[in-house]
Specification:
Largest sheet: 5 strands, antiparallel
Radius of gyration: 50 Å
Number of helices: 5
Helix content: 25-40%
Number of strands: 7
Distance between the termini: 170 Å
Strand content: 5-15%
Structural class: alpha+beta
Length: 266
């Protein structure tokens, strides 16, 4: 009996040991802690400072020319002045050929460009005073007079504001109807000197001026010259000889009417 009891106790002990061993063998193995690998930082590339390379090529814009080109406003002012001078020349031609035979505008002693304007207004109806002025002319009145004649054209009474103002143009008189219409000047910007330059108090401040011819075409000149450009000069009346003196471009007997109210004829 004792032997059987001892056997049972031995078997139970073995079973218990086997169970303990099994329980230990089935437990999950401890997961080893992984040290976090250091994250490699993104390398910063420092670019070397680049020094500008001096270019040997020339600038695309010729600054010398750009500096001498007139502004848009100045170009507009010149175009308006050319249009006004062309109107004077065309009216002058209409005045000359409005009758048969053609008539000559003959200046009387003491006449100025104002008197030529009065005659054109009286006969041809060109009564706008503003075409005789250039915008921003330093010697022009402010405000500008509006009309040449203030009464019926037949009476030819001039507007006092006009007759007492310094005009922006000088006008030639005593030009025969058979004059060459393409080369004979009839009006031009005030202040043109015999050397082909304009005075500093001229409408464009001495930087040039406009000449209009009998056929109505006009031209801007920085200065008249017989050597700088082929078409930058006038011609002596009746010839093809270049000249910068506008007096020489007029026919014999012609006079230049002053833009000044009491200016002397030339």
């Amino acid at each position: 009996m004792k032997k059987r009891l001892l056997l049972i106790i031995t078997i139970l002990a073995l079973l218990f040991l086997a169970l303990v061993f099994k329980m230990r063998s089935t437990q999950p193995a401890a997961t080893p802690t992984m040290a976090a690998a250091p994250i490699a930082s993104t390398p910063v590339v420092v670019l070397p400072t680049m020094k500008p390379v001096a270019s040997s090529s020339k600038p695309s814009v010729d600054t010398t020319i750009a500096d001498t080109e007139p502004s848009y406003e100045e170009q507009t002012r010149r175009l308006a002045a050319e249009a006004n001078l062309s109107s004077i020349a065309k009216t002058f031609m209409a005045y000359s050929y409005a009758s048969e035979p053609a008539r000559i505008f003959t200046a009387n002693p003491g006449d100025t460009a104002h008197d030529a304007a009065r005659e054109l207004a009286r006969v041809s109806g060109l009564n706008s005073a503003r075409i005789y002025f250039v915008a921003n002319d330093p010697k022009a009145p402010n405000p500008l007079p509006k009309v040449v004649l203030i009464s019926d054209p037949s009476e030819a009474e001039m507007n006092p504001e006009f007759v007492n103002a310094t005009l922006s143009v000088e006008i030639a008189a005593n030009i025969p109807p058979n004059a060459n219409v393409k080369t004979t000047p009839v009006a031009w910007s005030r202040g043109l000197r015999e050397d082909g330059t304009w005075t500093s108090d001229s409408p464009f401040g001495g930087k040039g001026g406009i000449v209009v011819f009998l056929d109505g075409h006009s031209k801007w000149y920085d200065r008249l010259s017989t050597s700088s450009q082929i078409d930058n000069y006038l011609v002596i009346y009746g010839t093809n000889t270049p000249t910068v003196n506008i007096r020489e471009a007029l026919p014999p007997g012609a006079v230049i009417l002053s833009a000044e109210p009491n200016g002397a004829q030339r």
